[in-house]
Amino acid sequence: MRVLIIGAGILGASAAYHLARKGVDVEIVDEEHQGKATLAGAGIVSPWATAVEQPDWYGLYATGARYYAELISGLTALGETNVGYGKVGALVVAEEKGTLDEAEARIHRRIKNAPEAGDVRRISPAEARELFPPLREGMEAVYIPGGARVDARLLSAAMVRAAVAMGAKARNDHVTLQLDDGRAVCIDSNGARIEADEIIVTAGAWAAQILNPLGLSHPVAPQKGQIVHLRLPGVATGKWPCLLPMSSHYMLAFDDSRVVIGATRENGAGFDYRVTAAGEHEVLSAGLALAPGLASATHIETRIGFRPASRDIKPILGRVPGIAGLTVGNGLGAAGLTIGPFAGKCLAELVADGAAPVALDAFAPEGRA
Known about the structure:
Elements: E1 2-6, H1 10-21, E2 25-30, H2 37-40, E3 42-45, H3 55-77, E4 85-86, E5 90-93, H4 97-110, E6 121-123, H5 125-131, E7 141-144, E8 148-151, H6 152-165, E9 169-172, E10 176-180, E11 183-187, E12 193-194, E13 198-201, H7 207-211, E14 220-231, E15 242-245, E16 250-253, E17 258-262, E18 266-267, H8 277-290, E19 298-310, E20 316-319, E21 326-330, H9 336-353
Parallel strand pairs: 1-2, 1-13, 2-9, 5-15, 13-21
Antiparallel strand pairs: 3-8, 4-8, 5-7, 6-7, 10-11, 11-12, 14-17, 14-18, 14-19, 16-17, 20-21
Cofactor: FAD
GO molecular function: oxidoreductase activity
Keywords: Flavoprotein, Oxidoreductase
């Protein structure tokens, strides 16, 4: 079997890695779009506090977090150690005590089936600031030791390298799809057909453009995110936990004295690559209100990413009805860096073995209109 993967973000890279592990002949074609969600995103792997209760979606979200231990172990065994992953813990905070109480109850209910979350406990404002020094005084927190952060650029690159080391091919190109007697076929930028028995489209916010020539109205649009990167010169930030306020913003730190504050969620902005005054103000205001100790930090950059957002919160994963040889993985949205690696494994097993490790019926893509 020969499988072509279009798009090498977190999802496509994972699918390639897992197919290569099975000995499948894999080719990865990726176009280096600016604004890829994977390249811009700084991920927090800590699903247990989310207020979203949709059972299918939350089940995939929680399984994605659990799968990271196996993923990192497998990559390490292949010599991939620069994967950008660290289990540093997570602090859940809230402006209102009642909101934090609700979050704590929700977390404890969920971790009964999630030992990987660790010994979750309520901690005092002083303990919270000891773990995350810039935090505003007087904020209690729920501490989740099993929370982790991931640099998606590093992790995706590591999975692609591992796949290539196991025999996969990878190249950068602009490709198009067309139908040939009811089957999806791929044409490269020189007009040549790329031979494949199966095609997996994991092209993120650009997938609709690729799938449209097949008569598919793909229900995913770019959701723009502006993400601010700061540096605290000389400060050892590498062990700081992720910060999860009960809002759409978040904070995490990396080893190079870097602190990341994210992010806007801009629907309807299209592929607008600009850092805007309003976006910068929103993110910095939210970040400094929560962690005023970052006021003297150096602004390094603001990254722009386009999350592939579906019409509802659910991902789109599975074979496309009515088109032979075509599988789609998309719509992971803001949960992409938690769900992506496991979802890639699901797609790999679906294509190679005929069945995913979990049921994907709830995430099935639509067929042709």
